[in-house]
Amino acid sequence: xxxxxxxxxxxxxxxxxxxxxxxxxxxxxxxxxxxxxxxxxxxxxxxxxxxxxxxxxxxxxxxxxxxxxxxxxxxxxxxxxxxxxxxxxxxxxxxxxxxxxxxxxxxxxxxxxxxxxxxxxxxxxxxxxxxxxxxxxxxxxxxxxxxxxxxxxxxxxxxxxxxxxxxxxxxxxxxxxxxxxxxxxxxxxxxxxxxxxxxxxxxxxxxxxxxxxxxxxxxxxxxxxxxxxxxxxxxxxxxxxxxxxxxxxxxxxxxxxxxxxxxxxxxxxxxxxxxxxxxxxxxxxxxxxxxxxxxxxxxxxxxxxxxxxxxxxxxxxxxxxxxxxxxxxxxxxxxxxxxxxxxxxxxxxxxxxxxxxxxxxxxxxxxxxxxxxxxxxxxxxxxxxxxxxxxx
Length: 392
Ligand SMILES: [Zn+2]
Prior knowledge:
- The structure is a single chain.
- With 392 residues, the protein is α/β, with parallel strands linked by helices.
- Helix content is 35%, strand content 22%.
- Helix 1 packs across helix 9, helix 3 runs parallel beside helix 9 and helix 5 packs antiparallel against helix 6.
- The longest helix is centred in the C-terminal third of the chain and has 26 residues.
- It is elongated.
- Bound molecules: zinc ion.
- The site of zinc ion (ZN) has 5 residues, from helix 3.
């Protein structure tokens, strides 16, 4: 059981955080200013960096020595929209009932941020020998943009931390891996013409059909590539699928345009690169030459909607080992949802996902985090003191 004053200050801070309607489309600056104040009050060195539009910012704060090898508590500040008609109370005003704190973002992931901020004064009072960082980012729900900017800042920094704990809602289970999520829209531009003379036009739907056929072949290739590193995922391979297609104007007109919305969920980064390279080569060497033999302006354009790298399971992972020891978990898991973890892992940092509340409540009406989960989270955060004061 965490000390009761910690739980009550977590509740107070969460009440404030939920009150900032930080839907991804809107500003998070008021929340960032509030958190910056709290952290500065306990002596943290706080830096706030804007996204260039003036409406979003990341916060990065440090307690303890100015050295590399620190530990990061990371959370995104944005939330998904909430339709008040579907809620039993105002989504942006915290409501407590039956040991649960309700509000948009309660578990995804303001509960974790509130617990970390509530602990900040206690960390600050210790003689920290290893730095502790707080990373609050923007726009996770729409593509991890804030975390991308933070990763860029860290890449240039000489004080790269080594351990990252991402407090996404896992019911405090220790998550050491998740698949990536790569999303694309590919547009095919042909020429129209009368349906009775198909060879005089470039039928974009027909080209798209071949492209989708190639996606299916690659999906089959990926299905065969199971291994020890994928065994725990469901299904245990990299998947590809086409979710939406749109094109053409009428039955008897050659289709000039077609767009295909497709995605892949790679188990490993190499799979993603292999699929992308194979599809690029197919368009460049096969589809485009045939299209352009009829019409020089024909084209295929692929737009990247989002490329969120997975969190690869590593045999050595200090972040996982620290959190596993603190939570008493015997087993580590992998999950189906994505986080910004892969961005940090790409910098060579060890990363684990562990936070209060359940993903089942995230993005739902009446979202909540239970006091019991916050209590367990505070225990974990308190347990971290040892590695900060007496680093190995
Ligand atoms: Zn989240």
